[in-house]
Amino acid sequence: MSVVTVQLGQCGNQVGQELFDVISSDAQDGQRKTYSSVSRERFFRQTSQGGKKMRYNKNKAPRGFYYDCCYVGKVLKYFFFFLRVPDFEARAVLVDMEPKVINHSMNRAAKSGRWRYAEASHFSQKQGSGNNWANGFRVLGPRHRDAVEELVRREVEHCDVLAGFIPMMSVAGGTGSGVGTFVTQCLRDVYPSSFVLNHLTWPYGTGEVIVQNYNSVLTLAHLYQLSDALLVHENDAVHRICSQQLNLKQISFGDLNRVIAHQLAGVLQPALTPDSCGAYSGNPLGELVSALACHPEYKLLSACSIPQMASASIAFSTFSWPALLKHLRQMLIANTKMEEGIDWQVRPPPASAGRTSSLTAGGFNASLANLLILRGKDVYSAETGGFEDPAIYTSWLPPAEALSLWKSPVPFDKYEKSATLVSNSQALLRPLDDMVRKAWNMFASR
Amino acid sequence: MTQSVVVQVGQCGNQVGCRFWDLALREHAHVNKRGLYDEALSSFFRNVDLRKSDGGDCCVGGRIQHLKARAVLIDMEEGVVNGILQGPLREVFDSTQLLTDVSGSGNNWAVGHLTYGSAYREAIVNKLRKAAEHCDCLQCFFLIHSMGGGTGSGLGTRVLSLLEEEFPDVCRIVTAMYPSAEDDVITSPYNSVLAMRELTEHADCVLPVENQSLVDIVNKISVMSHGAKPGSVLRKDSTVTSGQGSLSPTEKPFDAMNNIVANLLLNITSSARFEGSLNMDLNEIAMNLVPFPRLHYLVPSLTPLYTLADVNIPTRRLDQMFSDAFSKDHQLIRADPKRSLYLACALMVRGNVQVSDLRRNIERLRPSLPFVSWNQEGWKTGLCSVPPVGHSHSLLALANNTCVKPTFMELRDRFTKLYRKKAHLHHYLDVDGMEQSIFSESLSSLSELIDEYHQLDATKARLIPDAPRLSIAR
């Protein structure tokens, strides 16, 4: 039931902190109690040292007295009502080879007031990996293996039931990619029967790190053998969402990370699955992996969600399931990650077209399997027939098996109705091909 | 957090180093408001409590007692170092960090490298080891010296090879001041070429800086400040333009030029010291920018050089900063990188710049910059949130570009002009241990380097087809 996140490198730690932020604020916003408690159990643990954070919150909570020895406490006790706010600590292990980012993330988490990272769950060294995958995988990973495994073990012991691991990292740098691959390998060795879902962030095509293609290719090759599924976000696509969909003028990495966190939380927050028999699913990672990664050679997953708009506009918008699902289906088929600029001309090829040898025939994105997660009002009446169309799937998997549907009647992250689609499709093929081509060109020079 | 040690050799090295320490103190004073000895300070300074009997270093987190620079100052004549010790920076160095002699190297590379190199080898290694021992996690040695003189080029390169021997795992970044064509030292071509061979073989990366470019930049700044449009006021307190507001009240003649080089060093280490949304450590510089081990000459360019005191920075000015970084007026050697081939390029941005601004400018500038075929989109970017003093944002561009080839070819020409006539050669050959073969080896090393750059240049216009990919058997 509980998920342990391992945040690796600068990207992993920054995205992870935003993810926990979104989850904790979603679980708190006056939601239904079962949803909040399942979400909290999944990602946080409550500690008894909650006395530090005191909040005077007359309107929301039942009244209670807080006994304190000191004078100030007594005075306040006589005249005010206090609520003891339990401290939520994230079920996360933070790993980085240099200390600045971890300190920054932990401070930001503590400042939020709703949750924080546990004091001892981080591991950092003094000097980074130097964007060197080999340094991360062969030198730093093995060197610090014991310390990291100990931290993970402690986190796992706090879980009643372990649902699995989510290592979060980028593939362009040195620590996230190199040490991250090694840590995934260790998780596989130590916990062979747990699910491992890697969350990867792919860099901008026009370069963030010069050797990013080498690091990416090496990481993906290893992770493919080790991980159960790889859920990928590309910086390019998320940047386009920020600039065209959310209309942000100046986009910072924080904005990119918030979009990624929103989509990821949309996948991971509690939902009712076909197997969970009327309660929130107790095995989210397992069900996700079994729904999508139906063949060991096909593990690359991508996500998109709808609607995505600037938070100021949400109050003025109305949503309807038919419109949302129609757009989402076209986003899947035409391989775009946002509602702006959808190409409505793209259609599934007619059944008689046969196999084509090009990467994507006419811009059409064929799917292997799809997981559709609907959250919000009137979710039971949403019509998802468009996703069961055999034309968008391959021939060897019947659409009834290929489409999985999860629902949650609780609105997510201030959207009255929202849908997230995790798909195992050809969407990542072109960026992957580019990455391999550039790595090969650099390698084959001289 | 890692520490770095600065080794300054020779007159030029020590003068630039002196400006560096001054500006570093100013920058940290600007950022560090609470007087605590934090991780950023510890990367270049030690906090020493002189009352402790063991000359004790204090650890991070306490109040600042007494800052000592992590530096080793080497010069074979006493004038410059004594000047530093009598100036306002005397508290920052202690006597165990200095190595001086009386008579100087006489502008003779052989005297610096061989005579003094052997005589002071033990002493130098001891001082380096002491400086390294004070560091928790030593990441990098910064070596500053000139190429034209005797001590800087000779003893400086000897120190470089000692660093490689004693500390092979620690990165060595050399800031070398190359002589211009009208240099005042006649034998500077000999010294430079002899030193170049050492740099090619022992350094991890070299940031070449030419005096003439620095002169041009300083002239441009002074034209700007005197001929500025009415209503626009040049900010006087920026660290690039002047040392005003720093410790020394009067500026010495080379100070403005040395300030620029000192800023270069500050900006390179900024992302390692301060926080940012995309950190770039020092070991990532060599990793990303040096495709083949000998081609490690990175042309630096620094913008902006001055700021007008307008408060709002419209986007155009930010974009102007990026365009300037690639113009030939802002490079620190006399070269035009846009005309030559880029092997790799790093952009280190400081201040309030977001990733969208960075992306926009890269896409805008990319079509006009010729990149080598196997690294078409090769950019290394770093974002640091702390801007330098007096600016709201700044950009340091490090380019591994074949535009260093003409500089090296000129150097080689000046060398051969003298060498053909064997002029001044006897001064070198008189030194114990020096042989003529060293000259010819250095010349051939330089020629090979020029050749390698030339071969890459030749691929510039040609369209290289993609190498055939490995095919997977179906």
TrEMBL record, chain A:
Q: Where is the Tubulin/FtsZ GTPase domain?
A: 79-275
According to its UniProt entry, one GO biological process term is: cell projection organization
Q: In the UniProt record, which is one GO cellular component term?
A: cilium
Instruction: Report the subcellular localization.
Output: Cell projection, Cilium; Cytoplasm, Cytoskeleton, Microtubule organizing center, Centrosome, Centriole; Nucleus
Per the similarity annotation, which family is this?
Belongs to the tubulin family.
Instruction: List, alphabetically, the PANTHER family matched.
Output: TUBULIN
* Protein name according to UniProt: Tubulin delta chain
User: What organism does this protein naturally occur in?
Assistant: Fundulus heteroclitus
Its lineage reads: Eukaryota, Metazoa, Chordata, Craniata, Vertebrata
UniProtKB/TrEMBL annotation, chain B:
Localization (cell): Cytoplasm, Cytoskeleton
Q: In this protein, which residues make up the domain named Tubulin/FtsZ GTPase? A: 60-276
Q: Which family does it belong to?
A: Belongs to the tubulin family.
Identification of the protein by name: Tubulin epsilon 1
Supply the source organism for this entry: Fundulus heteroclitus (Killifish)
* Cellular component, GO, one term: microtubule
Residue ranges of domain Tubulin/FtsZ 2-layer sandwich in the record: 278-413
Keywords attached to this Swiss-Prot or TrEMBL record, sorted alphabetically, are:
Cytoplasm, Cytoskeleton, GTP-binding, Microtubule, Nucleotide-binding
Q: Which PROSITE patterns match?
A: TUBULIN (PS00227)
